[in-house]
Structures are given as structure tokens and as C-alpha cells.
Amino acid sequence: YRAEQEWRLVMMKNNLGEYKFPYAKKVYIGKDMPDDGVQRIREISAKLNIPVYAQAISKDQNGFEYKLLL
User: Fold this and answer.
1) What torsion do the CA atoms of 38, 63, 67, 12 make, to the nearest 10 degrees?
2) Residue 40 Cα distances to 35, 44, 53, 55, angstroms
3) Is 47 helix (H, G, I), strand (E, B) or coil?
């Protein structure tokens, strides 16, 4: 993902919180993430002052868009 200048992190529940990314600027959440996961990401991001964007199906139903969660 070097060309996209992004990190993709997938981890098991027993490893949550073991990775630190002090240089994160934004967080993008996939459309299928469970509500409890979204809430946890939002809590962490708020403490770090990092905006969170949620994936949604686009209005034309032909792709995705990302909406800022407030």
C-alpha cells in the first residue's frame, strides 16, 4: 500500500491495543464493522484528535463513499 500512502491493520481480539501508530492522521472504518468496534475506534480517535470516516454505499449504489463521523 506504499503507493496509496496508507496502512491496513488487521488483528485478533487478543492483540487489540498492542500496536501503536503515533503518526496516524485519519481512520477509515469499513461498512461491515460491528457497532461496538466503531464505538471503540471513535473513543480512541477522539483521545488522539484523529478524524474517523465510515464507509457507506454511494448514492448511485455503484461504489463507496466515506462520511466523517462527528
Assistant:
1) 20
2) 9, 6, 14, 16
3) helix
- Whether 39 contacts 62, CB under 8 Å: no
Query: What is the distance of C-alpha 47 from the center of its chain?
Result: 15
Segment 14-60, tens digit of pLDDT = 766 666 766 788 999 999 999 998 999 999 889 889 999 999 999 99
Collapse the DSSP code of 69 into the 3-class scheme (helix H, G, I; strand E, B; otherwise coil) and give the result: strand
Give the strands of the sheet with 52-57, arranged side by side: 27-29, 52-57, 64-69
